[in-house]
Amino acid sequence: MMPAAGTEMAARYRTRGFGLVFLLPALLLGACTLGRPAGPPPSPPVLAAEVASAAAAARLHWTPAGGRGFLGYEVQRSLGPDRPWAVLARLDAVLDTTWIDQDLQGNQGYQYRIAARFGRPGQASHPLYSAEAEGSIHHHLASWPLPAGFLPTRLAVDPQGNIAVAGAGAGRVERFDAQGQPLGGWSFAAVPPACIETGTLDAVSLAFDPQGALHLAYNLPAAGQAPGLRWAKFDAQGQLLWERRLQGLFARHLAVGPGGRIYIECIDRLYQFDTEGGEVAQYPVPPLLISSLRFWGEHFALLIEPANYLDMGWQAPRLMIYDSPEQRQAQWWVGREPLSAQDPGRGVLKRPADFAVDAAFDRVFILNAGTSRVEVFLRARHLTGWGSEGEGTGQFRFAGELAVLDGLAAGRSVQRRVVGGGIARDAEGNIYVADTFNNRVQKFAP
Fold it and tell me: Domains in the chain: how many in total?
């Protein structure tokens, strides 16, 4: 039986209508999708900075920037709140989220941020910035003054982290805790020590032994004759245990070596003593201008100013590291020759006065008095440094006027412009500088 014409048309209409009912929402959804780009809105990265003084570097890492239209990152750095931002690097990949900033300078604050740029290629982009991250190495922590005329030249740190300071202008040692609070001084002479300038200013040398006893080598002035060489030992409570006379021309340096043995270097000889003060050995001393003497682990280290280029074969000072106190074989040295008169001096030593060793990380901190800086080396490679001449925070004055011996035999003193200073490092890695002619001690972070 055939359906009526009206019935068939009604069925077709219903079928088409059914299709339109389902097609219309799809068309509307498509129109909405075409009008709105796919993907979430842009979001800035989250930045973290890890600063390592042992490498003089900052490792920056951040979360990937989210959102559509990502074009790339800019790693930006500023040297202070009112300083401009400089672009260190540009990175294109959204997952390239690490950057290492090397060759950081000491006592300098650094600010970092990441700019994630969004837009369309070939058109103007807009940045979204991360929050800023900060960091620094060897930043200034504190300063404390010394009595008028003290003129600090050497420092030592005891096993408890307290600091002993000796100066060219007083016959006593001033003592401070790690925060700079005075702990009382220990007197070793009624008058200031005799001073002489060889490589740099030589006045009093001091060091603590493993038991916390303080040893000092100094020279008592004597009118019309050579000064008298002395070695004094104080126990950890400040009781003077002994004061002994030494033979020699002038006691310049004292160091405590492996096993607690005491080494006292005079212009004409090097003494070695056991922990009870018994003499173990004497070694001849070459005619060198030695600014400082310490141990680098088991090695014997001397900071030397060359007296004659023709004899020594090098013209800039060096820190020489020997296998033993006999100084027969140099294991390595620190410092380099200037390449020209225009050499900027990175790694070149000029009137170095003292040094402190970080044996754990194979670093050495050299007080480069001729440039008013502290220079840091990783083994023999220059790593970083800080300082300038002046009286401000983090500045130094290592040169000034002082009465020093004009020849040893007559004991006569003359006023002369000299260079001096001292440096020490505690078990926490803090650095202490004897800022001689600013008459203060400055402390810097690890």
Answer: 2
**CB distance 189 to 168 below 8 Å:** no
- Each residue's pLDDT tens digit in the chain (446 positions)? 444 444 443 433 333 343 433 333 443 444 444 444 556 788 999 999 999 999 999 999 999 998 889 999 999 999 988 899 999 999 999 999 999 999 999 999 999 999 999 998 878 889 999 999 999 999 999 999 999 999 999 999 999 999 999 999 999 999 999 999 999 999 999 999 999 998 899 999 999 999 999 999 999 998 888 999 999 999 999 999 999 999 988 999 999 999 999 999 999 899 999 988 899 999 988 777 899 999 999 999 999 988 655 455 678 899 999 998 988 889 999 998 888 766 767 889 999 999 999 999 999 999 999 999 999 999 999 999 999 999 999 999 999 999 999 888 777 899 999 999 999 999 999 999 999 999 999 999 99
- Whole-angstrom distance, CA of residue 61 vs CA of residue 25: 46
What secondary structure letter does DSSP report for 192? P
- In degrees and rounded to multiples of 5, residue 257 shows phi and psi of -105, -170
CB 261 within 8 A of CB 277: no
Are 159 and 117 in a shared domain?
A: no
Q: Which of 236, 131, 232, 128 is nearest to 190 (CA)?
A: 232
User: In terms of domains, do 145 and 124 share one?
Assistant: no
Q: 446: which DSSP letter?
A: -
Do residues 304 and 363 share a domain? yes
Q: What are phi and psi of 370, to 5 degrees?
A: -65, -20
The verdict on 326 and 248 lying in the same domain is: yes
Residues 6+ apart with CB under 8 A from 366: 303, 319, 334, 335, 349, 352, 354, 355, 374, 375, 376, 377, 423
Paired tokens of 93: 């990949």
Range of the domain at 122: 47-135
Residue with tokens 């000796």: 166
Amino acid at the residue 438 = N
Q: Token pair 């800039």 is at which residue?
A: 316
* b/e 169-200 (16+ beta carbons within 10 angstroms → b): bbbbbbbbebebeeeebbebbeebbbbbbebb
Q: Which of 135, 156, 189 is the last residue of a domain?
A: 135
Question: Could you tell me the CA-to-CA distances from 397 to 31, 144, 358, 410 in Å, in that order?
Answer: 75, 15, 24, 30
